[in-house]
Amino acid sequence: MTIQVAVLAFPGVQLLDIAGPADVFMEAARQLNDARAYRVQIIGTESGPFKSSSGLYVTPDATLQSFRGSIDTLLVAGSPDTDVITENSTRDAWLKKRAKSVRRIGSVCTGALILGMAGLLEGKRITTHWSSAEKLAAMFPQTEVDPDCIYLRDGNLYTSAGVTAGMDLALAMVEEDHGRELALKVAREMVMFVKRPGGQSQFSSHLAAQHTEGSTIGQIQAYVLANLRADLSVPQLAERARMSERSFARTFKAESGSTPASFVEAARLDQARRLIEEQSQPLKRIAQLCGFSNLDAMRKAFMRRISIGPAEYRRRFASKE
């Protein structure tokens, strides 16, 4: 059986939003030794060729008007220039109609804006490129936008973060279709993670802290980053912020998008990753330096967030110099 994949594209589209997922699906077909396992088509909002955001041209296989046939998986590509993503009644009506018959519908990067314009995001939990998360949340207030996830599934709706995250999403779909063993083979061949470490902040708690810089919560985050070995429990941090524990936890979540405990763990893990990559100290010592209660606590944090332990992480990513 051939899984029919269609990617909706438009002038100004991000080329990798199309090519990235397409290559994942076709590599899966190659690994299956079945060229017909997946068929990927580009559907244009207009006939091509039209220019992508990189200046390269895209020639659609069909347009909204000319496309005939069934679709199993429908993805909407995005663009780094969200100004080119505008209301389009023909496109939106086509998406609404197709959404009723496809097994999966989703977006890559800012393609989520198009799904929103078509009325397909209401009541859904989704993600998009981190730089467009606030815009999307403001445009579609009935949608829960998670700015840090690499990809999300809500029912048959799939959304991914920016650009290369579309490949992560496609790989997850391959795993759904054919199992983890094939996904691992595709990931190895394409030099990808089966599950990419961390979220859009790329494990950088420093980057996450920039969103609250200057506020009381921002000051607490800066303190956490500079004092990883300290007692960073909610009671201690709330006292430092001069708030009640309940108010502190609520304000922290509202301003940063994560709980205090999650931020602390991410900060410690971020530092542990850097030390493992750059130094040859024993893992037990690194756990101590990063504020973990013991090596097992650090190992659990690694497994929880990136699905590999610190020893395996060192094997893969430590500097060989």
From TrEMBL:
SUPFAM superfamilies according to UniProt: Class I glutamine amidotransferase-like, Homeodomain-like
SMART domains (UniProt xref): HTH_ARAC
Transcription regulation listed as a keyword: yes
Signal sequence extent: none
Boundaries of every HTH araC/xylS-type domain copy: 218-316
Assigned keywords, A-Z: Transcription, Transcription regulation
CDD domains: GATase1_AraC_1
InterPro entries listed in its UniProt record: Class_I_gatase-like, DJ-1/PfpI, Homeodomain-like_sf, HTH_AraC, INH-QAR
Record carries keyword Transferase: no
PANTHER family the record matches: ARAC-FAMILY TRANSCRIPTIONAL REGULATOR, HTH-TYPE TRANSCRIPTIONAL REGULATOR RV1931C
Protein name: GlxA family transcriptional regulator
Species: Herminiimonas glaciei
